[in-house]
Records
---
Amino acid sequence: MNNLDTHSKILKAYKILRTITIVFAILGPLAMICSAVVITLLEEGWWFNLFAAFLAGILMMVGTLYLSFLTLMSEITRHIRSKVRSDLSDTPITKWIHRLVMGASIAGVVSYIPFLLIVYDILNGGFAIFHFVCGGTIVALYFVLAINAVIHRIKIRL
């Protein structure tokens, strides 16, 4: 097996994982909204406030988990892309932020276990804060990456 075969296999894996990530990014929120609609309709009719309450509950239950899995898939896709194309132009700061995002997303997946134990009344509700902190950390780090990207683009244009 030569280097060209390895490169084409990595490129193929990158395209497949990128497609799966895009499909998951689109279908995840749709599944959450459809679940809230179905649960609302099972409660004998449509009522918007009930739909909003069910949607909020579903987002609390699986919002961080969805965001964590989406982040893991996108970071793995990004890592594979760096093997195919080496021009990611990462600064040391963005490398550390991507590492923090990856760690927060792994913690978000792991923090779902205590959240389930809270639902089944085995743990106290205070343990859910860690789950929500993981989701908030991921969102905050993405805001930092977005601000960094905007500043980087402005520097390039000037």
---
Amino acid sequence: MTGQTVISIGAGAGQAPLIRAARNAGFQVVGIDRDDAPAARAWLARHIRHSTHDADGAVLAAQVACGDGISVRAVLARASGPAVVTAARVAEVMGVHGVSMAFARASLSKSVLREQAAALGIAVPVGVVVARPTPPNLPRPWVVKPDQPVVGKKNVRLVRDADAFPPAFEAARGESVNGLVEVETYIDGVDVGYGALMRDGCVVRDLLYDEYTLFHDGRAAGLGVGAPSRLAGGELENRARAAAQTLFGAWGMANGFAFLTFRVDRTGGLHVYEANPGLCGDQIADRLLPCVWPGFDPFAAEVAALTGRELAPSPVSVPAFCAVLTGRDQPVRDVAELGRALASMDGGAAWLATMEEVCGGVGEGPAP
């Protein structure tokens, strides 16, 4: 194996577009994944069979694979959970660009993010991390979730009474990597996401988008994502951007994509509760970003930002409206059509009504 190399933490179907982008940019790619990698095999120079949840072992495997004479430029990771910490550890030891360890730890643990953001003066949901199925002394309803989740929203539940707390706790604890459970007082409102592409600590492009998330029968569910957010272009977006700059700076985030999720209450209060480095899931990288910025390739941009290559300019700088909905192959490009589509989905009408109230609380005008 010769030439410049990047390391990919993970080599499954989710990582394949990023690995392909790196190979198309001229890099040799070393993939670390304990499973077979049929989706990415064609673009891998080498596949190391090792768990992405074992940080120290992955470091040793990467050092052996990339010995003398091999120039490693960056560590790529399109991952969540412990694999993010592994990516940060490999980048740290090898002295190359990748996710910072501080960002990785805040991404892995909901309680760490909550505590760090609060210490920086950024609003967060009122919460506590617990180890036992005893109802916490917090105002109800509660959002009960794994402190260190592996599978997103699967075991996130809304609990309204103390009797329902123990089963929600056990479901969350069973998934949590550290066996701890994050409990937060529920905030009535909507979710917005903020994503930024960074180069040398500066934002190259960013986007505020809506996450059509809700609780259905007490369980968290996602109906899709859309951008630009109904709340974009005003004071709330400025506050989200300022909070992101504070957090990214504190974590030493300098290159590549980074995402935050905020809960916006009915008066426009903004509360951060999730952080993700790299190109996250939920169809954001695969479908939403190329739709709102036609001609923009987020995977190629991620590789360029992390390896120091020139970022290809996008032919469109102002995002066009686009929504990607669960169960629909074609994106929605019209706000009125989006309203009709959401209204036909379980819980969608309630989400639309809440967003209208939030817009009123923020001082936004009616939907276009």
---
Amino acid sequence: MELKPQPEMQLRTFTYRKYASAWIVILFFVWVFGVMAQVTIMWFPFESPMETRTMFILLLASFGFGIYCSYLVIVNMTAVLLLDEQKITYRDRYVKVSLRWEDVCEMTTRWIRGKDGRAIYFKLGLRSIDGWEELQRLVIERASLKEVIKRKLPIIGEMIVHARRSEQ
């Protein structure tokens, strides 16, 4: 009885940097302390119902924005991209998405999209992933992508904006 050698499973992990969404959290603090505090100081005590209603609307807008910032920070601290021989997997605290290499058809500035419309979203941009150059190279290699077009995009840096899978 002959033992067949098992194909090596090379699993590479790419993690988001902790400060990838720091700019939106800073924007939240600017909003709360720059706008909300100034409006409160300017209008307090609220003498008319219109001022009270406006302040309540601003407070609700801040509350929703704060929840979104908290969500981004939690996702940022737990987001991981896993690459192996069969698939690419994105996982964070709330979401897990896997896409087989055979299904990878096109890369754009924000997602890798499969034929059936499922997608792995890079909402925070590739620069916020440790080792993004290696990830880019591995995706091109593993998915057998051709006609790869890379562009230098402002803020984000170099990204694959278009690629096709070789037809076999």
---
Amino acid sequence: MTETPEAQPTAPDAGALVPAMLSLCAGGLVRTWTAAGERLWSVPDDALRRTMYEGRISRTPREDRRFREVALLDEASGTLVLMPLIRTAGGGDVTDLGLPPMTLAPADAQGRPADDFMDDVADALYRAVRYTVDAGGFLLVELGGWDAPERPYCLFAVDGDAVHIETAPAPVGAPIWTPHLAPGAPGASVRAPLGDDTLEVSWRIMLDAVATWQVSPWELALTYGVR
């Protein structure tokens, strides 16, 4: 049974809404990047996290044929509006996300994310990997932001009957990647047969590389590529 909220957020002023790129949503926190800058927010529940990563919400181009998930944000009120992804020019397959505008709160600089925030990171990568396989595209974990650098990155793609995972810079010190490091190489890659067993551990391989970047989950964004 679905509980009815006691109060719904006030409808936002359309003129105040601006595109906001979204970081990973983990431990009840999410970072947004707008033309005005970046900000870390506390999210009211799991609705945002559950809706991300699987091709349901709108995207913005990162570069040619690469896209990142975005929402509309009224920063003054903290109102976040999720829009459905339009996959065809005619918009025939657009569906209602069924989510009202949600109200974010500025994250306390001294606050802590929920203790299980790494479970949310694992869930994000696992779901994004599965979606990428079904969609026939490719996936990148990168730093967030409108002007984010091309490196560091970690790429997941299916190449024929194999999974290809590639990362740069070289993930020195990452246990899973250590056997795959070549002296002086700018990066590293691994390949494994495509199958459920490989997909079940692909997120771990990616996370092992990302951990060497020494950044928080709220500094990361997922980029979805179209072949």
